[in-house]
């Protein structure tokens, strides 16, 4: 089932997610719905707070980026061909490498894209959808998507990384989103 995306301005997007246990109700269905919602919205990642769930769960599919890249982009990123994975109760163990800029967007903040600086590499501890524990290091585009989605379960948004002047310039657009004056190509829930 395709779920509506929570728009900027909703309190849940600023709330730290809570850890879940294997008996979380309908978890397999929720993850399946998150994949369906992410693909229907043309996203490469989706976190539970974006579908109005205050839990530490996100899904990513960086393989889509590599499948759709231009010929001259091939081989540019170390994580090619990408990763498709669900992350539950993720915690960052280490950030490493140089910071690099990449133009990010967010399904909860439609029609706004900005360059964001993030580290090249992230090491995470997490459990998968079967609650098997993992500790794994990711880099490149995959690390970037993970860090973006991880921020969601920490109550942060990519616009928090922008300089104050840039955020001030975006204030009108952000206010329009929170008031439901911006439309996306997917169903959204706007703050009351």
Gyration radius over CA = 16 Å
Here the CATH topology equals Peptide Deformylase
CATH superfamily: Peptide deformylase
N to C succession of SSEs? EHEEHEEEHHE
CATH class: Alpha Beta
Distance between termini? Answer: 24 Å
Largest sheet: 5 strands, antiparallel
Helix content: 25-40%
How many β-strands, per DSSP? 7
Oligomeric nature of the chains: single chain
Coarse shape: globular
- CATH architecture term: Alpha-Beta Complex
Strand order of the largest sheet: 2-3-4-5-6
Number of domains: 1
Beta-strand level of the residues, as a percent range? 25-35%
Summing up helix and strand content along with how strands pair, one would put the structural category as alpha+beta
How many helices in DSSP terms?
4
What does this structure look like?
It catalyses: N-terminal N-formyl-L-methionyl-[peptide] + H2O = N-terminal L-methionyl-[peptide] + formate. Fe cation binds at residues 106, 148, 152. With 192 residues, the chain is α+β, with helices and mostly antiparallel strands. It has one domain: Peptide Deformylase (Alpha-Beta Complex), CATH 3.90.45.10. It has 4 helices and 7 strands; from the N terminus they run E-H-E-E-H-E-E-E-H-H-E. The strands form 2 sheets. Strands 2-3-4-5-6 form a 5-stranded antiparallel beta sheet, sandwiched between helices. The chain has a two-stranded parallel ribbon with strand order 1-7. Strand 4 (84-106) and strand 5 (109-127) form a beta hairpin. The longest helix has 15 residues, at 164-178.
